Amino acid sequence: MLVVCKAVRRGTKRALVSCDLPFGPLQEGIGSALRAAIRIVKEGGADMIKLDGAADFPEAVRALVRAGIPVFAQFGITPQTALKFGIPYGAQSAAGAQAPAEMTAQLVEEAKVLEAAGASLLDPVIGGFGGGPWLDGRVRLVHTAIGYGEKWLDSKTETYTNTAKASLEAFSALIADVRAARQIKG
To answer: N or C: which end of the chain has fewer CB within 10 A?
Structure first.
């Protein structure tokens, strides 16, 4: 994450840089999470740290905030929490699908806990795969929207483009040209 955070910091002039705390330090404990967050801020240049599953770690949120590190707290419907409430994770993408009342109440409670812990921003995961008018909010990941990644090579899911397939075709053509000693394009 340091390598990526440093690259983003170098490429920005005025943007707020948020960096995810990698899996591990938060799960190991508050001290480990704090050391990792401080390192990401000092060495990586992050302005704030994003904590996935932050509702499970409100004391870590408090510790980072006390240390002067703004926290972007993610919480909400994940594959694990959806199954806990008896709904398949992908069900949120179906038109009209709604979280049960007790799950909604839990999301509100988690938001209040994170606010009380001092989180600067809340990132409620309240959508499923895809998006549409049936969702109250959704961050669409760019790599999903453009079909970037091996899983998209043979995917039938509609994306704005299939970058994975286009990249595979381009690299295959490049390799064929190199092997045939043809002029390289570009």
So the answer is: C
